[in-house]
Amino acid sequence: MQYILILPLLWLLAGLSVLLHELGHALGFRLGAGKKPWRVLAGSGPELFTVGRCTFHLFPVGGYFLPVDRDEPQTKRGKILMLLGGPLTSLLLTALFFALRFFVFVPDAAKGALYGMFAYLVTFLLVFNFFQFLFTALPIRYRVVCRGMISDGRQIVRVLRIKDASKGEPQ
User: Fold this and answer.
1) What is the domain count for the chain?
2) pLDDT at position 165, please?
3) CA–CA dist 118, 13 (Å, integer)
4) Where does the chain have alpha helices with state H?
């Protein structure tokens, strides 16, 4: 029974991790492009609700960072900063949860069920953010989830191959 109760919490934490990843892209965009407008779509599937610039979807897998004016040219540096922001945020979250799991929530049966539950949640977040980092940093094309889309890492490789980033054509 207690495991059924924890599933909605895992869903919320996974969605929060996806949101933080996408906000990492927003931070990179702000560093590279200044105060230009942007939006974040966190998750996939049916839309649940919108708060400010963030739209939340039912499934906490995938997400998008969208500059509002996508036709406006960006510098190569700006594109790379924007693309690196998400994976770097996921990597920082992985390091944070690694430290929490192995230095704070050390396995100890004598500390009780609540302690064990927090250790479980921290472990879940560690693994989720690690795989989120891995699958967004590797230069791959997604075949199953987000079919046809390319990872942040693959987009970075494309940008690095472009002579003039504003033209969008590879060398």
Assistant:
1) 1
2) 45
3) 12
4) 2-33, 76-99, 113-137, 152-160
